[in-house]
Amino acid sequence: MGRAQKLKQKRKEELRKKEEERRKRFRARLLGAIGMALAVAITVFLVLLVNHLKEIEERKASTAPDPLQEARSRDDSVPAVPDEIGAPNVRGAVGMAKPSDPNTGEPLPDSATSEFYILKQDARHLDAGYSVFGQVVEGMDVVDSLEMGDYLYAAEVEEGEGGRHLSLLTSRGPIRIRLLEEEAPQTVAHVLDLAQTGFYNGLTWYRVEDWVVQTGSHFRSLTSSNPSLFQR
Asked: In angstroms, rounded to a whole number, what is the distance separating the alpha carbons of residues 177 and 19?
């Protein structure tokens, strides 16, 4: 190979290397541009997605009421009734449940609103703190058979001889309660007002133990929670 050919070959090799380097730089710039474009696109997509989800949540909050909040609000709308301590807490007694002082564990005075219990066993230790306003006269077998989550379809007032009664229509059968209007007149009037306005319709028995059953709260009926309001 002559000198001219060697120079020509060398020139071709230099041009080939320069072209290869140029292509490498182009590919690098292209990949960088593509990567930047993807990063921008992903960022824009995430921002739009977050905003869309926020709009959905805001739309839900503004158009669809929260049932738990409604239930709590309905419970909170019931005023407290003064204590009327006197009638004994014996089997079949119907009394007003109420919260306890978090420091002492003792029932808070004059704090009963809508929740009530029915005793399956005597619980005379409750006499000093809870108002008994009724006594089951029919359906104690129904009370004994109640299970967590059973329904209280309706609470109806009966007028007749022997005084007024409150009939509870449950998913296990009817329960008839003689109202103790002489012993607890304010409490009876309070409960009857709630019953006549349909407050108790559709609730569940959310506390069922070997000695007591309890209902009367819309919020607790929905959540099926069972924190004890008083201890045996």
From this structure: 100
